């Protein structure tokens, strides 16, 4: 929806709507809206997969697929024809985040879904109507702790199965299996009936299957499949050491053959392993089908890339495999012969996986940071795609020189090359016009795997500007990647920032910044002096702009991920002119839009991030001079502005938050920040008090860290045997600081290097005692305050 808004406003502040929102464009109560109806580029779901990690089948043979990046359950016939889809990305009732598992109740047809992002079990009717949710994060019965993450290295956890009138859940983060009854009184799963099965020794259990013989568990971090007695927890059978490596999903056929999705990151273990019924001696016997497994790493039919889940279709006996990183479902007969596959890849040209910020070239092409497709894409002015070499710049594959880990934004340079801000590397990567990497520059800006943030823009001189959301500043680099300036600090005064994200540069060389945490857009001179602040009205949640765009008619467009809309403002007064969108999945509706751009013909393009698509709003009459996002020729700096910004020791009258007639001050009028309270680490606590053997087997240690005020925490840790020997430095925690709000806590996960874990295990064995010492150092910093450090030691004993 687009709505024209009243224009009588105070200077610099967005106006509240003067009347109710009208339908837009041009077909309802507001025929003056100049934009035509929205058209979409890319599919939200509709048979397209983006990291499918869950698969199940009902009694009629219909196949249910849970897709990691869409929050959608797609339902297909056994042959792969799309029947329907339900769910959308989010955290509310009926909304799904990262889908870790699916099961279908054979009695009612209801569909149960593990939402790893919110640690809940969601129940839907067969047609997709939401019924209820149970759970939430916790350790008591009826609550869960499911792992979740954005990529292959950190899958969504939580297996699920239905049998005996109950829902069985692999509570992966709590290392246990829970059973919840399905009752008529509850109308489905009843959280009050939850019990923990007495199966001990599990390490991140993932897949589940329940048969009359017992409970099959894909015991992921113990690298084994077990069959346990449901009542006693006694393990009846287990695979031999080395038979599996990070098994994820398991399914059992009527003859007792167990099919396991073996999901290691190494290419040798991307396969399906098959084990027979229990042999009676604590092991599994040979399978009754003529195969012990099939598949290997690859993209061809019958090969896999991170097979995450597996199910047996009761209607035809086919084995269904969620071939996750290949974005498809493969079906096999009982001996491993491929019989069908389906699913369009969300990484194909013209499809998107969490698209974020965008830029426009001088000739109208649109450059999109296609974040979790690990690439950038180029679209023509008409929304079609150019050459594949320009479209697909990189492919997923890990930390190597020619791969992106999380493209937050991309921009054109004056020489026609493309620069991409990869905040998970962290670095700036430069590509030529054919999509070939020509340079890479490290940066101090880094965000977490779960939150890729930051913006990038290039000025007429070729200098690169990037935002640092964690450091609350802008950084400037020359064309060769050397840092030449830093602008801003934490705060709300003009020229200060709180979570700055999108960045744009206008033809005059001014820098526009989406100052998300301060609920405003700031305009700075080419040397970083504050010129203008456009503040949003008091809304809840606020319009925290994640991205901004400029047109040639004196407007700023801001994409608000929190309110799922785009706002058009007067670039001088901040008066709200129009707004687009509301929360939803239909055309003209958005889910967490993180990008916005204006093409040369005035077309407004919105990166509808959680709907995995772009939406284009075209002007009925294209204006002249609509390209404003990159200057055509170098613009010299204003000689009246010092090249090195300074703040006077004795401030003049503080600058107002909004300047009605923007001017460039000869002397900054920003008052110095008031003294801030010194930060101190308020808490360091083991989130999982693990035994030594568990620590070394899992190779992860989770902690919660906090601060008394908003601060940045740097966390370091070492591990050593309690009776001596060298300490091992732990990895996994970002080398840059973590931003923590006052009184809140963040969870960090240390990883023990594989070789170090083996060395420590041998040292413990030689000394005849199982004990480790974990030493943690947390340093808290805050701009304008003295840093403080806290050291704490934990003893981990078996």
Automatic annotation (TrEMBL):
Coiled coil residues, start to end: none
The regions listed as transmembrane in this protein's record are none
- Stretches the record annotates as Disordered: 625-681
Which PROSITE patterns does its entry note? NHL
Q: Which SUPFAM superfamilies match?
A: NHL repeat, YWTD domain
Annotated GO MF terms = zinc ion binding
Q: Does the keyword Iron apply?
A: no
Q: Name the chain's protein.
A: SMP-30/Gluconolactonase/LRE-like region domain-containing protein
* Annotated source species: Paraconexibacter sp. AEG42_29
